[in-house]
Amino acid sequence: MRLKDKVAIITGAANGIGLAAAHRFAEEGAKVVLADYDAEAGAVQEVELNKLGYEVKFIQVDVANRASVDALIEQTISNFGQINILVNNAGITRDAMLTKMTEDDFSNVLNVNITGVFNCTQAVVPYLIKQGHGKIINTSSVSGVYGNVGQTNYAASKAAIIGMTKTWAKELGRKGINVNAVAPGFTSTAMVAKMPEAIISQMKSVVSLQRLGDPRDIANAYLFLASEESSYVHGHVLQVDGGIMM
């Protein structure tokens, strides 16, 4: 098993890509902390995954709140004794055209998508440094690489993730900690499923493979970066997008 006896925290793990990652990591032997703001969904998924024989613990967290993040790290250490992998997957959208985007829409997305990633990473890094090894995987987006109409806030936050990833790679590589990012393309999540079919068809049309990604496609990229197979991959942004905008 590729992650046998490793302890992984995955934020935003109660649904979508985060939940798919929790399944993949658990399948590969990891002990997984499902960290999410949605207490109801998180508790349900903890039960479902444990029924499958996996060792999974749900911990509610508000990644934008540092005290909440510190409690997440402390509870993880208390439950599992160590942390080996952090997947900064939690994120929100509040889409609107520039002329219609409110200040709250802008700041709320940045608070979760940027400050949340900063909080989680800064809180976990002392434990990884003490161990002399660890894996940090940040979730960017093709919107952060190419921009996207109606996503000033989201694109800005995901571009910032790339900058932080490369900065932390330079700071933490000498400590034995790999830092990388994944930039998903259009992915078939519950949020996307609610969109009109015409919009979904348009999304597929700009993808070379002519389909949306499955959450498991992204989870497999997380798994690669969390495993020892990627031990010499560092400071990289892995686009998992089906060949968008080629």
Describe this structure in words.
The chain is α/β, with parallel strands linked by helices. It has one domain (7-239): NAD(P)-binding Rossmann-like Domain (Rossmann fold, 3-Layer(aba) Sandwich), CATH 3.40.50.720. Helices cover 49% and strands 15% of the residues. It contains 9 helices and 7 strands, in the order βαβαβαβαβααβαααβ. The protein has a 7-stranded parallel beta sheet with strand order 3-2-1-4-5-6-7, with helices on both faces. Helix 3 (66-80) packs parallel to helix 4 and helix 4 packs parallel to helix 6. The protein is globular, with a radius of gyration of 17 Å.
* CATH hierarchy class name: Alpha Beta
> Rounded to an integer, what's the Rg over CA atoms?
17 Å
What number of domains? 1
CATH superfamily, by name, is NAD(P)-binding Rossmann-like Domain
Total helices: the number is: 9
Query: Structural class of the secondary structure composition?
Result: alpha/beta
Mean pLDDT comes to 95
Low-confidence stretches: none
